[in-house]
Every structure is written in structure tokens, then in C-alpha cells.
Design a protein that fits this description.
Elements lengths: L2 H20 L4 H33 L8 H30 L9 E3 L2 H17 L3 E5 L7 E3 L3 H16 L5 E8 L4 E7 L24
Parallel strand pairs: 2-4
Antiparallel strand pairs: 1-3, 4-5
């Protein structure tokens, strides 16, 4: 995705969203549109954070392509740009369809490449902050039913949240747990944690939780 095509996509996206938001819809439908767009905004924050991090390195004059770390930052930014482009196209597709719903297309996939790519996306930022990411996955191929486009967005969000709240010099562990009919992806960090909270609030719309100090 070039900068020129990105500018074009963003301009077209703005027009599509304006058409949707200025259309006459009921309160219930308006709430649904707000929920869908809030999901997209949340999802695009993670890839944009990776790109912004590289730009700060460049702006400070610290970018040195002879360093393996900075080479990985370039690679991570490429992945992030492709992620952001995919989200933009999804927003445009939803806006054009005129239906306030998030399209889901499940397929039987091997999640390991997607998990590794999400880890790769944050690995350079983690290394620059002296945070180690330990990835442990089975050698044999596994299969799950999932959306190959949405699953990485979930992983990206979880990993960026973990990176944001993990102190320098600590570790983030990513590992799988095969429970037969289900496969769990665990992301465990040394952050502050959530403290004593009501579990029902974890998935509350637009809810905010206070981290313990």
C-alpha cells in the first residue's frame, strides 16, 4: 500500500462514512452504527501505534538500517500498514452495504502463522523497550474454525495492551493450550493487572476499568 493509495482510500472512506452518518436512521440503528465504527476505531489503533513508533525513531534521527532491530521495525510497519488497509476496506464495505454489522467469515485455518505474525508485529517495539516476548507453539499443525482476517486483529489488540502495561525488563509469554474441541491462546505478562473487578464489566460496551497501581 503506497502513501498515495492510502490518501485516496482515506478520502473515499471519509465520503462513505459521511453518507452513512447523514442518512436518516432511527435511534436503534444509529447505536448499531456507533458500535460498529467504535470497533473499527479500536482495531486500527494497534497497527497505527506500530507505524507511529517507527516514525518517532526516524524523526529522532535514530533509524539505522544496519541494525537488525530497526530492520524488524520496518518489517513490522509493513505488516501494520497492511492491517490498517484491511480495516479501512472493511469500513468502506460496511458503509456501502448500508447494514450496521461486522462481517465474519469463518474458515478452517492453521492459526500458528497468524499468531507468529502478530508477535512479529510487536516484537521490535518490545525489544526496544527491553521487554522479552516468549512464544511457545506446538510443532505440529493445528486447525481451528476462525475468521483469518479478524483473528489477527484480536491478537494484535491483546498484545499491544500487554506491551503497553508491561514494565521494561519484564516478559510477555504467548502460548497455546489445546483442549480438544477448543484451542486457547494465552497472553501472560508481568503488568499491574486488573485487581479486584466485576468480571461482567470486562465485555461491557464502552466500559472502562481502573488498573491497580
Amino acid at each position: 500500500m503506497s502513501l498515495k493509495s492510502a490518501d485516496s482510500s482515506m478520502s473515499e472512506l471519509g465520503s462513505e462514512i459521511k453518507n452513512v452518518l447523514t442518512a436518516e436512521v432511527g435511534d436503534d440503528q444509529e447505536d448499531k452504527w456507533l458500535e460498529v465504527f467504535s470497533i473499527f476505531v479500536h482495531d486500527i489503533e494497534s497497527p497505527l501505534a506500530s507505524i507511529k513508533y517507527l516514525l518517532r525513531i526516524m524523526e529522532d534521527g535514530r533509524l539505522d538500517l544496519s541494525k537488525p532491530l530497526h530492520q524488524r521495525m520496518i518489517k513490522s510497519s509493513r505488516i501494520a500498514l497492511e492491517r490498517a488497509e484491511s480495516i479501512i476496506f472493511d469500513i468502506m464495505a460496511v458503509a456501502r452495504a448500508g447494514s450496521a454489522g461486522l462481517p465474519v467469515s469463518n474458515a478452517v485455518i492453521d492459526p500458528l502463522p497468524l499468531i507468529k505474525e502478530s508477535v512479529e508485529l510487536v516484537s521490535a517495539s518490545a525489544e526496544d523497550r527491553d521487554i522479552e516476548i516468549k512464544l511457545s507453539v506446538p510443532e505440529q499443525q493445528v486447525k481451528v474454525s476462525a475468521d483469518p482476517k479478524l483473528l489477527p486483529r484480536v491478537l494484535d489488540n491483546l498484545l499491544y495492551n500487554s506491551l503497553r502495561h508491561t514494565p521494561s525488563g519484564r516478559t510477555i509469554a504467548v502460548y497455546l493450550e489445546d483442549c480438544g474441541d477448543r484451542l486457547f491462546v494465552h497472553i501472560k505478562d508481568d503488568g499491574t493487572g486488573l485487581g479486584e473487578i466485576d468480571p461482567s464489566k470486562l465485555f461491557e460496551k464502552y466500559g472502562q476499568l481502573h488498573l491497580r497501581s
